[in-house]
Amino acid sequence: MNLEKIREKLIPILSKKEIEIYSIRTKREFGERIVEILLDVETMDINELEKIHLEFVETLTDDDLDPNYFLELSSLGPERPLTTKEDVKKAVAKYIYLESNKFKGYGTLLSFENDIMTVEINDKGRIRKLDISFDDARKMRTAIKF
After folding, report:
1. 77 — alpha (psi -120 to 50), left (phi > 0) or beta?
2. Which of 56, 101, 125, 145 is deepest in the core (most CB within 10 A)?
3. What's the distance, CA 26 to chain centroid?
4. What is the rounded average pLDDT for all residues in the chain?
5. How far, in Å, are 62, 134, 141 from residue 76 at the CA level?
6. Alpha-carbon dihedral of residues 106, 112, 115, 116, nearest 10 degrees?
7. Helices within the chain (DSSP H only)
8. Up-side HSE of residue 131: CA atoms within 13 Å toward CB?
9. In whole angstroms, what is the distance from residue 53 CA to residue 14 CA?
């Protein structure tokens, strides 16, 4: 099974809808082997996802997907990990969750310049701005504000 070949077959289907692949990987869950494909969209109608899935499955041959694996196609969703500087740049003006030596919690990412993230937080009713180095962040993701 070649994950790159699977990617190559899926790209033309997604490009018509201006959707990109976030990741393709194999995993084990509840004893089952799965090829997990995450699409880089925040929200997607289940019917649209099903259409993509059916069109994609029609392009696959027996050599493309190991019969011992299930195929899982889903969207990344609104809470996405921020692991690269490019991810952080795209998240400016969004609500995020952040863990660092300086802060652990939620806030709005105001800017990202020279590897410094400026985050606006609500500290017990007081609005504050924190500057946090990208290298000091241990964990980051976009978040949903309720």
Report:
1. left
2. 56
3. 16
4. 92
5. 27, 23, 12
6. -60
7. 3-15, 46-59, 85-90
8. 4
9. 10
CA distance 55 to 73: 12
Distance CA 7, CA 21 (A): 8
Q: What is the pLDDT of residue 78?
A: 84
| Residue the block writes with tokens 């899982």 | 72
pLDDT tens digits for range 102-116? 899 999 999 999 999
User: How many CB atoms within 10 Å of residue 48?
Assistant: 13
Strands 126-133 and 137-142: unpaired
Quote the tokens at residue 124.
């017990």
Model confidence pLDDT, tens digit, residues 32-71: 999 999 998 878 889 999 999 999 999 988 888 888 899 9
The CA R_g of the chain, rounded to the nearest whole Å, is 19
Share of the chain above pLDDT 90, in %: 77
* DSSP secondary structure letter of residue 83: -
- The pLDDT tens digits for 8-30 are 999 999 999 899 998 999 999 99
**CB distance 98 to 139 below 8 Å:** yes
Backbone torsions φ then ψ of 103, nearest 5 degrees: -155, 145
